[in-house]
Amino acid sequence: MTQPYRPGPGATSPAALARAVEHLHAHPQTPVAVTELAQVAGVTPRALRYAFRTHHGTTPLGYHRQVRLDAAHRDLLTADPPRATPSPRSPPAGASPAPDVSPATSGGATAAPRPSP
């Protein structure tokens, strides 16, 4: 006698994955944590990560990054050309300005950086 198929404990339904993807597309500029996204989808964070890896070839946050990049690309394509290029001193939207780390403002330290381990 055969048993009917029952998904394992980490299984994610296509509807749950679709809820997570829809949430990411609906809120591309909102920072999101995997735990929050898993709650939206109704699954565990581990199951959500596995589903994204299996069906999209990336993590939930990697997918969100691509959604954000796609949205930024669309915005640039539809923007007013003279304003589409940011000035050299303005940070991208939503980013903090880069700190000034020139020797004149950092106390004059001119030592070479240490190699990473």
From TrEMBL:
<keyword id="KW-0805">Transcription regulation</keyword>
<dbReference type="InterPro" id="IPR050204">
    <property type="entry name" value="AraC_XylS_family_regulators"/>
</dbReference>
<dbReference type="Pfam" id="PF12833">
    <property type="entry name" value="HTH_18"/>
</dbReference>
<keyword id="KW-0804">Transcription</keyword>
<keyword id="KW-0238">DNA-binding</keyword>
<protein>
    <submittedName>
        <fullName>Helix-turn-helix domain-containing protein</fullName>
    </submittedName>
</protein>
<feature type="compositionally biased region" description="Low complexity">
    <location>
        <begin position="92"/>
        <end position="104"/>
    </location>
</feature>
<dbReference type="InterPro" id="IPR018060">
    <property type="entry name" value="HTH_AraC"/>
</dbReference>
<dbReference type="InterPro" id="IPR009057">
    <property type="entry name" value="Homeodomain-like_sf"/>
</dbReference>
<feature type="domain" description="HTH araC/xylS-type">
    <location>
        <begin position="18"/>
        <end position="80"/>
    </location>
</feature>
<feature type="region of interest" description="Disordered">
    <location>
        <begin position="72"/>
        <end position="117"/>
    </location>
</feature>
